[in-house]
Write a structure and sequence with these properties.
Helix 3 packs antiparallel against helix 9 and helix 6 packs across helix 8. It is built from ten helices and no strands. It is globular.
Length: 253
């Protein structure tokens, strides 16, 4: 998008986009949002599908190698970096839950509420539970020692799909899945478009949907008003820009 002939002040735009990417990386690492890190391999694959060709494969491979070397060097040179700390905390939480049967940390707490969801979803699978009656059900199960008391301390399940199944059943889950899958397919079809601008916007659209879908595995992202608004506005903007580029028939690179 920042090639000559498309925008003026090419290097200023490239610097701005590079600064934005670095800022996003810094914010993600320092905040410890491990759920978003899981999406990075998928986004990388989508980026490769949309940008790599026989003509630039060597340059792309070299760039990927440089990024991997830089990240590996940073991780090795900073033993106390947030990525290592987050990984170690996750391993400890998982060991405590599955090996020792105790709930410690955020991940152990998530496993506990996920167990509760898996136990209770089959009782009302189609339309789900009411908020108050589900809370009362958890309190009864904690009192019976069926569930760990930690499940009463968390405000939600920390999983958008389980949260939907609990409160809206299979009907609600189908709507959530359609919201991700349908637009993803339309963007994905354009990843190899002859029009470079269309291809770039298709990469952005598929990445947006992939990240939010994967983030939903550890967070109820679309149940937050601010996050939902960002998702919908960004999705509509990318789709509108991509369709506008297709309609204008701008020259391909």
């Amino acid at each position: 998008w920042t090639r000559r002939g498309t925008v003026t002040h090419v290097w200023a735009w490239r610097a701005a986009l590079g600064l934005g990417a670095l800022s996003a990386w810094y914010g993600s690492v320092m905040s410890g949002t491990r759920g978003a890190w899981i999406a990075l391999p998928i986004v990388f694959i989508l980026f490769c599908l949309g940008t790599f060709s026989k003509h630039n494969l060597r340059k792309g491979a070299a760039l990927c190698a440089v990024v991997i070397v830089v990240m590996s060097t940073w991780i090795a040179a900073t033993p106390t970096n947030p990525i290592k700390a987050g990984y170690n905390n996750a391993v400890n939480d998982i060991d405590d839950y599955f090996q020792r049967g105790i709930v410690t940390g955020s991940i152990g707490g998530r496993f506990a509420v996920w167990d509760a969801a898996f136990i209770n979803i089959p009782t009302k699978p189609m339309l789900g539970w009411g908020v108050r009656e589900y809370r009362e059900q958890l309190e009864r199960q904690v009192a019976d020692h069926t569930l760990d008391p930690y499940v009463l301390e968390l405000a939600h399940t920390h999983n958008m799909y389980l949260e939907t199944l609990v409160y809206k059943g299979v009907v609600g889950l189908l709507a959530i899945l359609a919201l991700f899958i349908v637009p993803f397919c339309y963007f994905y079809r354009r990843l190899r478009s002859a029009n470079t601008d269309v291809r770039i916007l298709a990469i952005c659209g598929t990445s947006l949907l992939a990240v939010f879908a994967i983030l939903g595995l550890s967070h109820i992202s679309l149940y937050r008003n601010d996050i939902l608004l960002f998702f919908l506005v960004t999705l509509m903007t990318l789709w509108g820009c991509m369709r506008a580029q297709e309609s204008s028939g701008s020259p391909s690179a």
